[in-house]
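Bug #77: duplicate submission created two jobs. Keeping one. Sequence:
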Amino acid sequence: MAEYSKQDLEYASEFRDEIHKEALSIVRKTHPDVAEVVDRHPVEDYFQQSWEYPGRWYTVVAIPYGCKSRKALVDQIVCDTLSGIASGKVRTNTEQLRDTEEPECPPDDDPFYSILEGYPDLAVEYRIVKGERYCGYESHRRALKTAFKQLGAEWEGDPDKAVGKKIAADKLFSSECRDGKLDYRKAFFEPPYENGYTEEDFARVNGALFPDGTEELEVYEWTTDWSDYFDDGREWWGTLCLTVYDKALDRFAVIMASATD
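Kept job's structure:
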């Protein structure tokens, strides 16, 4: 999967939002209370590679490959949204107003937190979040906001400024080198002060976090320049911010890390 800068993703998100507004205005002619549209294309699809002078590839924001025109894309989104309305999968404004209530963080007596108590030297923070109708990217952001509010009472930040990108679920646990970037495995095993945890410990924690396995996970990795929570990690060790939607359990795991010596 190609890597895109934060600025690239922001430009693509803005372009995608314009497409969505255009499609939504059409849908609302017959369904005025609809709050959202259905777009089968994630934000990463709104990039194309263009070969330009003096002979190199450039990343440009554009309609996804396979769409013949902007109008054809809008028509596709309108059609998918109308199908979603018919099946009850698309929210109305009334439902969206109800959903402005924050998702829930289950009580700390969830079995996962009991397992976590056995690992006091972890530099990783975890929260389980559930309690809202799943609607893709924005549900991931809302889960992040809920977790940050619970974890970050002493921290300042605005999760609405975070930019997320979808990553393959197998990368969540991978030991593959990522050019010095902090990943979940490194955050677990290599904090600024040695913790001595083993692969068995990693498996035990993740087995409790994802008790139904990892095949149904959807993972977003988020930028970390939106809160002073991440200031320590930016000194040298690194920062990590992930939201993981477990489709089997219909809940999120929010994973954050930032530390210094």
